[in-house]
């Protein structure tokens, strides 16, 4: 069974579904083989931080309505910014300083 983890801060997102999560164990039956014996179930709400992200399973009693989702933008590292700056500095430009296509 997967143990729940506590998030450091609240997550804002869209509710995109509901799942029933079962707990239990697999037991061996000589006549039917492996059988699943359920010992209970819990309902979880699927909350997606952004439409292209995998939703998180949140217990029903642990979520509240409200908030505005924002896209997760990757942070540019300093070496990546410098690399892009140098690459575009060598790109050909016209008389007005605009980049020329295909250069």
Give me some keywords for this one.
1 helix, 3 strands, 103 residues, three-stranded antiparallel β-sheet, mainly beta, elongated
Description of the structure:
The structure is a single chain. With 103 residues, the chain is mainly beta. The chain has a domain at 9-63. Helices cover 12% and strands 35% of the residues. It has one helix and three strands. The chain has one helix at residues 78-89; strands at residues 14-29, 33-48, 56-59. Strands 1-2-3 form a three-stranded antiparallel sheet, with no helix packed on it. A hairpin with a 3-residue loop joins strand 1 and strand 2 (33-48). It starts with 13 loop residues before the first strand and ends in a 14-residue tail after the last helix. 3% of the residues are buried. The mean pLDDT is 85.
The main sheet comes to:
3 strands, antiparallel
Number of helical elements? 1
Give the number of DSSP strands: 3
Structural class of the secondary elements?
mainly beta
Radius of gyration from the alpha-carbon trace, in angstroms: 25 Å
**Range of helix content:** 10-25%
Which strand order spans the largest sheet, edge to edge or round the barrel? 1-2-3
Straight-line N-to-C gap: 55 Å
Mean pLDDT over all positions? 85
């Amino acid at each position: 069974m997967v143990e729940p983890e506590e998030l450091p801060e609240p997550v804002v997102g869209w509710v995109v579904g509901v799942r029933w999560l079962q707990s239990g164990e697999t037991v061996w039956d000589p006549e039917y083989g492996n059988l699943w014996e359920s010992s209970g179930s819990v309902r979880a709400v699927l909350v997606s931080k952004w439409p292209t992200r995998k939703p998180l399973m949140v217990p029903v009693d642990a979520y509240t309505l409200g908030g505005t989702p924002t896209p997760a933008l990757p942070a540019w590292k300093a070496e990546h910014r410098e690399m892009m700056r140098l690459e575009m500095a060598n790109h050909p430009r016209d008389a007005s300083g605009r980049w020329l296509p295909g250069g």
